[in-house]
Amino acid sequence: MKFFIDTANLSDIREAYDLGVLDGVTTNPSLMAKEGISGDEKVRAHYKAICDIVDDKVSAEVISTDFEGMVKEGKELAKIDDKIVVKIPMIKDGLKALKYFQSEGIRTNCTLIFSAGQALLAAKAGASYVSPFIGRLDDISFDGMELIAQIVHIYGNYGFETEVLAASVRHSMHLLKCAEVGADVVTCPLKVITSLLNHPLTDSGLATFLADHAKAAGK
Ligand code: E4P
After folding, report:
1. Residue 133 near residue 146, CB atoms below 8 Å
2. Which residues line ligand 1 (CB under 6 A)?
3. Is the pTM of this model over 0.85?
């Protein structure tokens, strides 16, 4: 299972990378805006800075919503670095763009997936990844995790190569359930990754080990 970090914050990306468990990064226009990044040149430079930190995939989302615009923008994004994956919204022109990028050998991540039907379309159009949003479904009282399991099952039935990238992951239980149902990738904030470290028995066990060592050493 791959771990991606869902942020455009360079210090969080560096921290996750330094932990040694990071496989990639996802961003979206809201996350870029949160870091105050705007304007073509600054956006490109920021993506390059992210690519320079990590070893693997960095999803960069297009703003255009028409086929020609998405193709133009996606090609520009893909030129920034080999690690770039062009993120395309699940809309009609987006489907066409997925197919186009597949034929050009450019990797894509189809975002804003909220149903198995959308995931099936994205896989048929040749998306490299699909991003179903767990937390946002949970927010409106639908079971986001059920969607992940459904997509994993459907893709398995037909051997689709599209990877299931579970997104909108809000806490460690989301992440662990994704691992149970076989999502290929999870993307989440840094705090979700670091929360996996925590266990009170680890803390108390370590405190005891250190205290016993100090006692034996006469400290
Ligand atoms: C994924 O690519 C999205 O950027 C992200 O996971 C959305 O998460 P949110 O619902 O917490 O904003």
Report:
1. no
2. 6, 26, 28, 111, 131, 133, 135-136, 167-168, 187
3. yes
